Amino acid sequence: MEEQSIRVEERQDKKEKPKSEDLIFGRNFTDHMFVMDYTEGLGWHNPSIIPYQNLSISPASMIFHYGQSVFEGLKAFRTENGDVQLFRPEKNVQRLNQSNDRLVIPPIDENLALEAIKQLVAMDSDWVPSTEGTSLYIRPFIISTEPYLGVAPSHYYKFIIIMSPVGSYYKEGINPVKIAVENQYVRAVKGGTGEAKTGGNYASSLKAQELCEKEGYSQVLWLDGVEKKYIEEVGSMNVFFKINGEVVTPALNGSILPGITRDSVIQLLKHWDIPLVERRVSIKELYEAHQNGTLEEAFGSGTAAVISPIGELYWEGHHLVINEGKTGDISKKVYDTITGIQYGKMEDPFDWTVKVEKNSKVRQ
Amino acid sequence: MEEQSIRVEERQDKKEKPKSEDLIFGRNFTDHMFVMDYTEGLGWHNPSIIPYQNLSISPASMIFHYGQSVFEGLKAFRTENGDVQLFRPEKNVQRLNQSNDRLVIPPIDENLALEAIKQLVAMDSDWVPSTEGTSLYIRPFIISTEPYLGVAPSHYYKFIIIMSPVGSYYKEGINPVKIAVENQYVRAVKGGTGEAKTGGNYASSLKAQELCEKEGYSQVLWLDGVEKKYIEEVGSMNVFFKINGEVVTPALNGSILPGITRDSVIQLLKHWDIPLVERRVSIKELYEAHQNGTLEEAFGSGTAAVISPIGELYWEGHHLVINEGKTGDISKKVYDTITGIQYGKMEDPFDWTVKVEKNSKVRQ
């Protein structure tokens, strides 16, 4: 397939940028956005970078009714010498197509999507903040736009990329959080959409999240939907436990999102010769490990927070305090290394970072 | 709560109406729509009937990313004497609030929602078609509109009602369809969102639907997500089986949508003293009933199709032909009675129909 070139329409009236110290997650958006349309028969066409603007969309658009949508999340980082770089962006565009397959959305050209991300970041590179812990969050997403009220795959879609300069995702930062095991609500089940990045999984999670926050917890620990025994994810992150010197994470089973940060953590641990195993982990096993003193660490992993240490786990009346409620050594080392690589402060032995070339931005 | 009055902005340039014989499901929309906004702190406000138009909405709106949405579907019918009536609309607004609760969307005022439906139908009553089998499909829905990329309940929503004059939902009409048992994909699971009317359930269903159509079947028969043994729904309908003289439908278990047509079928069967039981039904039981000749009828029920007879059921290599592939007596009687009541041709012993008063439409 011949690669399409991206049309660029530059904004004249640049927006005012928020100050670095005022940045909160996902509330401010940059000057431009990427948009590409899909029409049945014509395929994906007209890739364009245009001024950030509202969409004019029919109230009958299928996205409002039947939730056919997928999304991704990745970040651009400002290095100490002023360069801008992405972290494993090719993994995001690959996963977008995996999600597309599950949601019956036509696949995108991964090279074009990657090029769109790079050009958009280059175009708005002034928006990549430079203070500690800040970055430019990039949100590619696809929505079904056909105005039709029948349940069927849409014949029209929009692939859009928007970007938001962000501070830390959690107000607690890298400090440990308290989480609660969710026994009633289920995030996903084998045969469902749990391994795809689609809106319905997140909509489904809101009720449990609301209830756990009322009880004073930051996130819920999701159990599997079939036996309600095995750990799946924590909030919207993957999860790791260090038990008796070995790090354990739930194996990808069809209902767990294959996180890119998860994969990075696994590669790092293997690189460091830290024992790591992907397998089923039951909540009972965690409880017993805590009782006999071998539950040494726990942490979530995700693009937004990178690593979120778990200081306390609540399950059926038991408050399991982990590592005295402090950030563990592995959590810290993984966090420092991934963020070190992302910000160009540490060596990148895996070639995870991709530099954004400012001068390659317009290719008309 | 004091009831808010609905602001009306009438369209000047009326659209051309499609001919009755050209009507297809959910493709044409009437002259007006209802819109009401929700803002955290202010609540639901500014209920308005306005000309049917596109929405101008931020690409960061949460609906595009995290799928927080609910919807309903009901119909207005033209009776022989020219009146327009609704079928059990109060059940739809009640269920909308049940769905809202699961999706963490603030509840709507049910009286106001009902009034909005009535006024909108009255306003566009010329759009209610009059030929056999046609009706005006009404689609109330709520979407999360806050421009924010964090996973949390939205602080802004829109409650919208759009309407579409429709012919028959299935091109087969009341003719029996072939369906296939789905063994791989799952529609919903207990603890998920299966009993709510939210986009994610429908998005999740598209893949299995696509695969079954390739094999020549109209719909999939969904099994439970835990044991993959028990019948849940067929396509996006509830399902009934007549086994050895008794009608059986899956009991509402938390992952099955509480259908309004389902409830109407149950009430009718009880009214007619036809044995009816709500319980778990396994696919194995259906297979065995077919083998011993007691699987006498099967049909789906839903607002769009009313009743959809099942002529053949495919399961693990077995083609189970039901009632010689013909529409069964109960399917026919239920269909004739519900549509008879809907179109005002038959007595309405349950007070299911609600007349729309044309002259009460503007109340400023």
Structural notes for this entry:
The structure is a homodimer of 364-residue chains. Chain A is of the alpha+beta class and 364 residues long. The first copy, chain A, folds into two domains: 7-167 and 352-360, D-amino Acid Aminotransferase, Chain A, domain 1; 177-327, D-amino Acid Aminotransferase, subunit A, domain 2 (D-amino Acid Aminotransferase, Chain A, domain 2, Alpha-Beta Barrel), CATH 3.20.10.10. Helices cover 23% and strands 30% of the residues of chain A. Chain A is built from seven helices and 19 strands. Chain A has helices at residues 63-66, 89-102, 110-123, 199-214, 260-271, 283-291, 329-342, and strands spanning 7-8, 32-39, 43-51, 55-57, 69-71, 74-78, 84-87, 135-144, 156-166, 177-182, 219-223, 231-234, 238-243, 246-250, 276-279, 295-302, 306-315, 318-321, 353-355. In chain A, the strands form two sheets. In chain A, strands 1, 2, 3, 5, 6, 7, 8, 9 and 19 form a nine-stranded mixed β-sheet that branches. In chain A, strands 10, 11, 12, 13, 14, 15, 16, 17 and 18 form a nine-stranded mixed β-sheet that branches. In chain A, strand 2 (32-39) and strand 3 (43-51) form a beta hairpin. In chain A, helix 2 (89-102) crosses helix 3 (110-123). The longest helix of chain A has 16 residues, at 199-214. The first copy, chain A, starts with 6 loop residues before the first strand and ends in a 9-residue tail after the last strand. The mean pLDDT of chain A is 94. Chains A, B: InterPro entries: Aminotrans_IV, Aminotrans_IV_CS, Aminotransferase-like, B_amino_transII, BCAT-like_C, BCAT-like_N, BCAT_family. Chains A, B: One of its GO terms (molecular function) is L-isoleucine-2-oxoglutarate transaminase activity. Chains A, B: Pfam families: Aminotran_4 (PF01063). Chains A, B: Belongs to the class-IV pyridoxal-phosphate-dependent aminotransferase family. Chains A, B: It catalyses: L-isoleucine + 2-oxoglutarate = (S)-3-methyl-2-oxopentanoate + L-glutamate; L-valine + 2-oxoglutarate = 3-methyl-2-oxobutanoate + L-glutamate; L-leucine + 2-oxoglutarate = 4-methyl-2-oxopentanoate + L-glutamate.
